[in-house]
Each structure stands twice: as structure tokens, then as C-alpha cells.
TrEMBL record:
Pfam families: DNA_photolyase (PF00875). InterPro entries: Crypto/Photolyase_FAD-like_sf, Crypto/Photolyase_N_sf, DNA_photolyase_N, Photolyase_Class-2, Rossmann-like_a/b/a_fold. Signal peptide: none annotated. This is Deoxyribodipyrimidine photo-lyase. Keywords: DNA damage, DNA repair, DNA-binding, FAD, Flavoprotein, Lyase. The keyword DNA-binding applies.
């Protein structure tokens, strides 16, 4: 059978490798890791085939949408970690922190011109999607984007999955085959040509690397044009920190995940989404770790597709089964949906029934209408909502269960669904450290009916879209301590 991982390769232009090129360029855009990374593995394979060295290029622009000191610092910490590893292990790594818009693309062009070919990360949304669509046509060398996002390659589905149930059916059929073709743990170990790349002063003086320029610091960050009111977090953007959180979760919370994940007081979820978002850890390695904790008599031979039903596929421990469904089905359905849906961030990408019912109820009077600023400042009449918003501002995240309620209330408190979408996308992508992710759009658009079905009875404002209230949340989950903890900013 054809290697499943060939489905991860997106050949973005028809150029031939430049035989005069000095190196193969791996442009690390979003899966910012040196391990379990199919794109890096592919770049190493090309370097070996051409007998050339490899240059890993990682950078950060200063003009991306919703930029904040919070996201900047998280990414910078990960880059500083890579810089240290590169110095210790002796591979070619160039980090660049942009000070003026335009420097980063100009540097990329210079590096691409010196290269034999470019390999980068495939990603279905945000600036990476746009770059991967437009840049290859402007280069003279080949440009490959590689899908290292999840277990099921995005090319494996032929259209946007309508629901998690439909995607789960595909996942259950394909999981074993895909999982048994994992990325290599340390692809750089296979690199043959270890020559040091000399970029020359025209590059290094004009675009000094982040360390030489002394930019890996909070002082430097304070002078950059990003939203400085959204502060850096206590958690670190390094792979090391992501792996530590992984171990804590697997050791202490995984088995009870199914019972405890909905209680804000318990904090029973992994809190790994920030590291997953920036690609610091790979889904493959997390799934592998979780499956190793199945009971002794469990084996992959027991995996039997359940026709889209969650229970019974992974089997074994209920906590492991529940967590893997979130990590694989719910995480990846968003990647596949966005991959097949260029307007993934627009009202028009909602299912027809949802667009119709929300439009029919557009004129319904709202009990109260809040401005974007009132929402951002947690100035509503609802104590649960305000607590969730304060958690978002303080910690860059909201407990998963409350994140649903948080979204539903904004639909109720804004003049129409399009305004609600606009506010939610802004709040989420500015404050949430895991924002600007395919899952940001899965979660936000789920509020409006994506991946869901029509519900009855039909209600004011929501129409047939699923409804949630703070009162029922208060009855359903343990939230007393949470409300105390986030009573103020
Ligand atoms: C309005 C709204 C906005 C959201 N915005 C984001 C976002 O910006 N970024 C983001 O990563 N997730 C988002 N989600 C999905 C979900 O809330 C988070 O992934 C989850 O809370 C992260 O916490 P955790 O890492 O502890 O998850 P765990 O429960 O430990 O799950 C493990 C991983 O599975 C994935 N996952 C879990 N639940 C979901 C879900 N419902 N949908 C998609 N993937 C899931 C995530 O990658 C998560 O890290 C949003 C949900 C809603 C309702």
C-alpha cells in the first residue's frame, strides 16, 4: 500500500530544485517543534537526497492580526529554547524577531533565493494558509507544505465533515493505519550533511538573528507594536513546559477525565491546548502516551470502528477513551473542516438550517445588549460569564465547559449573529493563548450550529440553535470555588 504519509505533502508549485542552492530551507511557521514533525522530517529527507545541509528558519512577524505581548512572549520563549538546542547540538538554526513590518518577508525571500527548495508547515487557517497559497508562485524554487497537524492527514477527507460524528466514522476506519505511520521522534538525527551554513553579512547584518540582536527579552518586547495590555502568562511557551504539563496530566488526571472534565472547580482537563496550538507537542506523541496507559490486556487489535459512535472504539479506560475523542475527533474535525472551507471564518460557512433560523430570529428583541468593551471588561449582569471572561483575560484560557456558555451568552447579548461572531472571534483570538487555531473556529461556530443539529423547542434569538443558560450550568457543574477565584481581575 502507498505510504499514508504521502497524503501529508502539498506540492505548491512546479519548480525544480536549484542545484546551486546552498541548503534546504525548513521554514517553521506553526508546528514549532524539532521532534515528531513530519515537515522537518521531509526537509531532512530532501537535504539528504541532494547532499546539502539544512537550515531551520523560525521567525515572528510584528504585524499579524490580534497580536499581543502574550502571544509574542509565548512564541519567543519557544524560539529561545530552540536557539539553545541548536547551539548545543550544532545544527543550522536562524531565528528572527521582526521590528518593522516587511523585514520578515524580505528575509524569507533572501533565504529562499539561496536555497535549493523550501519546506514548510501546512496549516488550514490564518496567515499561514494565505502565505502557503500565495508565496510559492513568486519563488524560483520548489515549495512544499507538509501536514503535521494530526493523526488523519487532511487530504484523506474529500469534503468538509458536517459533524463530529461523520468525521469520527472516517477517523475510526483510518486511525490504526495512520497511527502506525508516525513521525520520527528526532528527524534531525538522520541529517547527513552537517556543514555550517554561512549566510553572509548581507543577511546577518541587515536581519540579525534574535539572539545576536538581544531580542529574546521582555525589554525588547515592550517596544514592539503589539497589544501590550494583554500580558504574558505564567506558563512557558517551551516544549519542555508542554512535556511537563503532559506528564502531570497523564499521571494524575487522565483516568478521571471523563468524570471531572466538566467541573470548573476540579480542573480535570489537560490544559495542553496552548502547546498543541503552537505545535510544541505533537498529537501523535500524546495519543501514544495515552494508549500506553491502557490496561495490560488492551491491544490495538481490539480497535473496531463503531460507525461514528464514540464509546467502544478505543475501549479500555473510560478516561482515556473520552480524552482521545476530544484530542483526535474534536481537534481534527476543525482542521479538516477549515481545509475544505476557505470561508471557515464567515457566517456563510454555517450549515443552511443554522443560517436560516438565526436570520429569522435576527429581529427578536435582546434582553440586554453589551458593547465589545463591556464584554472585554467583564461588565455583564451574569456572574458566571464575568468569571469566565476574567479567567480568559488573566490566564489566556477558559475552562472548556464554561467556554461553551461564554459563547452562547454573547449570541444572546448582541444585535445579531454576525456581530456576535465578530466579538467572539476578537475576544478569543486576542486573549486566548490557544486562539487563532482551527479549534477557535470550531468552538466559536459551534455556538451558532456548526457540527451540531437543530434543537427544539424553537426559542427567541437562538431559533433552533442549541441553547444554554447560566442557571442550568450552576446546577450541573461544580463552580463555587471557580466563582470565588475569578470574582475580580
Ligand atoms: C467558544 C469556544 C471557543 C474555543 N476556542 C478554542 C481555541 O481558540 N483554541 C482551542 O484549542 N480550542 C478552542 N475551543 C475548544 C476547547 O474549549 C479547548 O480546546 C479546550 O478547552 C482546551 O482545554 P484542554 O487543553 O484542557 O482540553 P482537553 O479537554 O484536555 O482536551 C485535549 C485537547 O483536545 C482538543 N479539544 C478538546 N475539546 C475540544 C473541543 N470542544 N473542540 C476542539 N478541540 C477540542 C484540544 O486540542 C485540547 O487541548 C473552543 C471552544 C469553544 C466553545
Amino acid at each position: 500500500m502507498k505510504n499514508i504519509n504521502s497524503l501529508r505533502v502539498f506540492k505548491r508549485n512546479e519548480n525544480e530544485p536549484n542545484p546551486e542552492g546552498e541548503f534546504v530551507l525548513y521554514w517553521m511557521q506553526i508546528n514549532r517543534r524539532l521532534h515528531y514533525n513530519f515537515a522537518l522530517e521531509y526537509a531532512v529527507a530532501w537535504a539528504n537526497k541532494l547532499g546539502k545541509p539544512l537550515l531551520v528558519f523560525e521567525a515572528l512577524s510584528c504585524d499579524y492580526p490580534w497580536r499581543t505581548a502574550r502571544t509574542h512572549w509565548f512564541i519567543m520563549q519557544g524560539m529561545a529554547e530552540h536557539q539553545e538546542i541548536a547551539e548545543k547540538e550544532g545544527f543550522n538554526y536562524y531565528s528572527f524577531l521582526e521590528e518593522e513590518a516587511g523585514e520578515y518577508p524580505a528575509l524569507f525571500r533572501e533565504l529562499a533565493a539561496k536555497s535549493c527548495l523550501v519546506v514548510t508547515d501546512e496549516y488550514p487557517i490564518f496567515i499561514m494558509r494565505k502565505r502557503n497559497e500565495s508565496i510559492p508562485q513568486t519563488l524560483d524554487v520548489p515549495y512544499y507544505s507538509i501536514d503535521s497537524n494530526g493523526i488523519i492527514p487532511m487530504k484523506m477527507t474529500d469534503k468538509a465533515p458536517y459533524s463530529a460524528y461523520i468525521f469520527r466514522k472516517t477517523m475510526q476506519k483510518q486511525f490504526r493505519h495512520c497511527f502506525e505511520h508516525p513521525p520520527k521522534e528526532n528527524p534531525l538525527a538522520d541529517l547527513q550533511n552537517r556543514d555550517m551554513v554561512q549566510l553572509g553579512e548581507s543577511v546577518t547584518q541587515k536581519y540579525p538573528d534574535a539572539k545576536t540582536a538581544g531580542r529574546f527579552s521582555k525589554e525588547w518586547l515592550a517596544g514592539i507594536d503589539v497589544d501590550q495590555s494583554v500580558k504574558p502568562l505564567a506558563i512557558e511557551g517551551t516544549r519542555k513546559a508542554g512535556l511537563e504539563r503532559t506528564t502531570q496530566f497523564l499521571e494524575f488526571d487522565l483516568k478521571a477525565y471523563d468524570e471531572e472534565r466538566n467541573d470548573p472547580d476540579t480542573e480535570g482537563t489537560s490544559r495542553l491546548s496552548p502547546w498543541l496550538h503552537f505545535g510544541k507537542i505533537s498529537e501523535h506523541e500524546l495519543v501514544d502516551h495515552a494508549l500506553r496507559r491502557q490496561p495490560r490486556d488492551w491491544s490495538r487489535d481490539t480497535l473496531k470502528p463503531q460507525n461514528g459512535k464514540r464509546d467502544g472504539f478505543f475501549g479500555g479506560e473510560t478516561g482515556i477513551e473520552a480524552w482521545l475523542d476530544e484530542l483526535i475527533t474534536w481537534r481534527e474535525v476543525g482542521f479538516h473542516f477549515a481545509h475544505h472551507t476557505p470561508n471557515y471564518d464567515q457566517f456563510e460557512s454555517l450549515p443552511d438550517w443554522a443560517q436560516e433560523t438565526l436570520t429569522e430570529h435576527e429581529a427578536d428583541p435582546r434582553p440586554v445588549v453589551y458593547t465589545y468593551e463591556q464584554l472585554a471588561n467583564a461588565e455583564t449582569e451574569d456572574d458566571i460569564w464575568n468569571a469566565a471572561q476574567r479567567q480568559l483575560v488573566r490566564e489566556g484560557r477558559i475552562h472548556n465547559y464554561l467556554r461553551m456558555l461564554w459563547g452562547k451568552k454573547v449570541l444572546q447579548w448582541t444585535p445579531d449573529a454576525r456581530t456576535a461572531l465578530d466579538y467572539l472571534i476578537r475576544l478569543n483570538n486576542i486573549y486566548a493563548i490557544d486562539g487563532r487555531d482551527p479549534n477557535s473556529y470550531s468552538g466559536i461556530f459551534w455556538i451558532f450550529g456548526r457540527f451540531d443539529r437543530a434543537w427544539g423547542p424553537e426559542r427567541k434569538i437562538f431559533g433552533k440553535v442549541r441553547y444554554m443558560t447560566s442557571d442550568s450550568t450552576r446546577k450541573k457543574v461544580k463552580i463555587k470555588e471557580y466563582l470565588k477565584k475569578y470574582a475580580r481581575f
